[in-house]
Amino acid sequence: MLKKSHRIYTLVDPAISKKSTADYTAIVTVLVDEFNRLFVLQITRARMDPLETCKAIFAHYERWHPHYVAIEAISYQQALKFFIMEEQKKADSTVKTMTVIEKKHTTDKIAKIRGLMPKYGILNVFHNSDDPNTTTLEGELLRFPKSVHDDLCDALSNIIDIIVPVNKTIDRAVKQYNKERRASVMY
Questions:
Q1: Which DSSP string corresponds to 4-35?
Q2: 8 A C-beta contact, residue 151 and residue 45
Q3: pLDDT one-digit tens code per residue, 94-140
Q4: Three-class DSSP category at 41
Q5: Do 166 and 6 form a contact (C-beta atoms < 8 A)?
Q6: 134-143 vs 151-162: helix crossing angle, rounded to 10
Q7: 3-state class of 40 per DSSP?
Q8: How far apart are CA 58 and CA 27, in angstroms?
Q9: Which of 87, 123, 143, 158 is the most exposed place for a label (fewest CB within 10 A)?
């Protein structure tokens, strides 16, 4: 069986308030190819309540079937993960198989977002020109760190810590296959 030469991840930076001054909930789905290039597939940015956030995450999942959904792990976000898991039990859709992980911060937000710079510097990040939120993401990136909102940048930056280079995954699978093949020939 051939493995896919790419992986898809959905990254979530939830916000708790719907007030006009509050942060936005940002949901970004990204494809990582065998050359470790990033392709931004879909962006959702809105002020949402927890149920709307769950529905938006489920919509990303049902459209793209990511390897997993990563949600930033802070108190509200941890409660959101629990809420999603409860909703998964009720849903009669593909979200029952959705894997949700908590993404813990390893650095401060500014350093985390700056981690995207090398990827952009070598032209390894591609934006979906058909997505209406792409211009918002690009505006946040261009104004960073002085932008009023950096929710999409923050969500997208989570990819740096969680991507598993697909070519290394394939290399491991090939090595394992060759090892098993050699072992079967010896006997």
A1: PS-EEEEEEE-----STTSPPEEEEEEEE-TT
A2: yes
A3: 687 888 887 777 788 899 899 899 999 999 999 999 999 999 999 99
A4: strand
A5: yes
A6: 90
A7: strand
A8: 11
A9: 123
Q: Which residue has the higher pLDDT, 182 or 23?
A: 23
> Between β-strands 68-72 and 7-13, what pairing exists: parallel, antiparallel or unpaired?
parallel
Tokens describing residue 131: 């997505």
- pTM greater than 0.85 (yes/no): no
Q: Quick one: which of 106, 184, 76 has its CA closest to 84?
A: 76
Report DSSP state, residue 56. Answer: H
**How far lies 166's CA from each of 112, 139, 148, 173, in Å?**
22, 29, 35, 11
Separation between Cα atoms, residue 144 and residue 116, nearest integer Å: 12
Residue of 168, 176, 141 lying closest to 155 (CA atoms): 141
How many whole angstroms separate alpha carbon 91 and alpha carbon 42?
22
Mark 100-109 as b/e (b = at least 16 C-beta within 10 Å).
beebeeeeee
Q: How many CA atoms lie within 13 A of 126 on its CB side?
A: 12
Residue whose entry in the numeric block shows the structure tokens 């931004």? 40
- Main-chain phi, psi angles of 185, to 5 degrees: -75, -35
75-90 helix and 50-64 helix, angle to the nearest 10 degrees: 60
Q: Which domains does the chain have, with CATH numbers?
A: 7-186 (3.30.420.240)
